[in-house]
UniProtKB/TrEMBL annotation:
Keywords: Coiled coil, DNA-binding, Transcription, Transcription regulation. It comes from Streptomyces broussonetiae. The lineage of its organism: Bacteria, Bacillati, Actinomycetota, Actinomycetes, Kitasatosporales. The keyword Iron does not apply. Transmembrane segments: none annotated. The keyword Coiled coil applies. Residues 78-105 form a coiled coil. Residues 8-74 form the HTH gntR-type domain. This is Winged helix-turn-helix domain-containing protein.
Length: 111
């Protein structure tokens, strides 16, 4: 379903504006900090994060953690996503094992 005529959601406004900025930038260029984007747009932190997340999902930017967000070189993000999924699965498995060990210890007759 497409909604027309109404104002765009704030996160979409952020993503659209940054897309225009990115067109003028080179791969590896750093985007403004989240604080700077909050000041620029006057939106909450979560709104800015949602706009940046949309750009990451499109492969236009990459996040370098505390270093910030950078214009992507255009390489397919699929390998990064696969690596992320593997890491998440590994962490879930480790947590499941820890929970199982804790449950075993807390059960009657456990160590």
């Amino acid at each position: 379903m497409t909604v027309t005529g109404g104002p765009k959601p704030k996160a979409v406004q952020v993503a659209d504006a940054l897309r225009d900025d990115i067109k003028k930038m080179k791969p590896g260029d750093k985007l403004p900090s989240q604080r700077e984007l909050m000041d620029r747009f006057g939106f909450a932190s979560q709104t800015i994060q949602n706009g940046l997340a949309a750009l990451r999902a499109e492969g236009l930017i990459v996040s370098a953690g505390n270093l910030g967000n950078f214009v992507s070189d255009g390489a397919s993000p699929s390998s990064d996503v696969r690596d992320d999924i593997k890491e998440i699965r590994s962490q879930i498995q480790a947590l499941a094992e820890r929970v199982a060990a804790l449950e075993e210890r807390s059960a009657p007759g456990g160590a």
